[in-house]
Amino acid sequence: MLETVKYLIGSNGPSGYGSKSTAEQVTESCADLRFVTAIITGVTSGIGAETARVLAKRGARLVLPARNLKAAEDAKARIVSEFPQSQIILMALDLSSLNSIRSFDAEFESLHLPLHLLINNAGKFSHDHAISKDGIEMTFATNYLGHFLLTKLLLKKMIETAAVTGVQGRIVNVSSSIHGWFSGDLIRCLEQITKNKRCLCSLQARERFAHQGTRTETTGNGSQRKGELCSSRYCENQTHQGPGEPLHRSLPFAKPE
């Protein structure tokens, strides 16, 4: 109950940030990200759109994969209108399709770019039972398996970048407190399972790859109602970080300690 009250009133946690902290506030101490190349999924609205906007403001080069390229073009146009010097590359990606993910990885590799930051933000919930092209339940395929494969394929590039630059890479998995909810509805349970798996995957990846210059975090998207995603806020309630670690360490803003 106390944690809920703290969230609602925006009290700062151990990281120094709370539910009312904005992306711009979180990145104030890291104003120059021109050395960072970031891949962000789910950028056409909500948290993904605001994350892309603020990272562009700080100078990061953005690679924005999207299933709907028209919506991605609109998102890019909004960012460029505000920050004309933005470096933004749009690429096709359907996270429910394993072939599409592999094609994206091959196309990104052909660009010969470094990779410092991967933010797995995209997600969906199929109200009706749906199956992906690969024969997998659609919500699970998109929210978990798709990001799992994407991360696995991009990990080599991130490790190589960390070795060359000396800057620790970051993988940020956006999850939700919904992973702890289950009312007995098996269809809705699938969304909760995907959020839970994303959290567990982050913890396992953090243990496996920490010594290779790559760090994995999970952050929650807060408790917004559908259609009311807080466009410029981060919630720390579900962030798996060490005690007292600032939230901005989810991003590669500083040299490794």
UniProtKB/TrEMBL annotation:
Instruction: State if Oxidoreductase is listed as a keyword.
Output: yes
One GO molecular function term of this record is: oxidoreductase activity
Q: Which SUPFAM superfamilies match?
A: NAD(P)-binding Rossmann-fold domains
Q: Keywords on this record?
A: Oxidoreductase
Which top-level group of life is the source organism from?
Eukaryota
**Region described as Disordered: spans on this chain:** 235-257
Q: Does the keyword Oxidoreductase apply?
A: yes
Report the sequence similarity comment from the record. Belongs to the short-chain dehydrogenases/reductases (SDR) family.
Record's protein name? NAD(P)-binding Rossmann-fold superfamily protein
